[in-house]
Amino acid sequence: FSKSPAVFNPKISAVNPGADWMVVRPLQRGDFDKGFLQLLSQLTSTGSITRKQFDERFTQMKISGGHYVTVIEDKRSSKIIAAATLTVEQKFIHNCSLRGRLEDVVVNDTYRGKQLGKLIVVTVSLLAQELGCYKMSLDCKDKLIKFYESLGYKLEPGNSNAMNMRF
Ligand code: 16G
């Protein structure tokens, strides 16, 4: 990320969120009541997750480690308005290195244009770098390629085709 202008010449960044009505922080159990799952449903199907299921998954993620679910809360309404997850994989390659994956990035529709997507992606990307990941990867829709490129992500032609097997 060292050449990313978004990180080193920001108007808005992890250290300068630019507004006192919001906070960037790790997911908390109480976020079940702050619309976290409703926000995720703007990204894809969540199913109908009960409080118990949410709590158990939260606990499992804590125990297994490597899951950094990060959110932005609007403190005025106590609602989660953006989220992104860093998942860290342990590797043998690259001298027993770590690989980061950027997952489940979503910003509430009604908060468009406030650069919250940039804020949360830059925050989570810096976290990956701080944790010692040798790279950070993501899958995204075609229309989001420009957005991620503006934050320092690059397509690697011939080397990074996303393929899925859906079950
Ligand atoms: C996007 C997300 C991915 C998410 C998937 C859900 C980013 C950068 N990518 O690819 O993390 O899990 O959508 O879509 O946020 P699906 O329900 O079709 O798997």
Which helices and strands occur, and which strands form pairs?
Elements: H1 5-8, E1 22-26, H2 36-40, H3 51-64, E2 67-74, E3 79-90, H4 93-96, E4 98-107, H5 116-130, E5 133-137, H6 145-150
Parallel strand pairs: 4-5
Antiparallel strand pairs: 1-2, 2-3, 3-4
The structure holds 2-acetamido-2-deoxy-6-O-phosphono-alpha-D-glucopyranose (16G).
Task: Please give a quick description of this structure.
This protein is an alpha+beta fold. It is 29% helix and 24% strand. The chain has a single domain (5-150), classed as Aminopeptidase (3-Layer(aba) Sandwich).
Please, could you describe this protein's structure?
The N and C termini lie far apart (34 Å). This protein has 167 residues and is of the alpha+beta class. The chain has a 5-stranded mixed sheet, with helices on both faces. The protein has a single domain, classed as 3-Layer(aba) Sandwich (Aminopeptidase). It has 6 helices and 5 strands; from the N terminus they run αβααββαβαβα. The structure holds 2-acetamido-2-deoxy-6-O-phosphono-alpha-D-glucopyranose (16G).
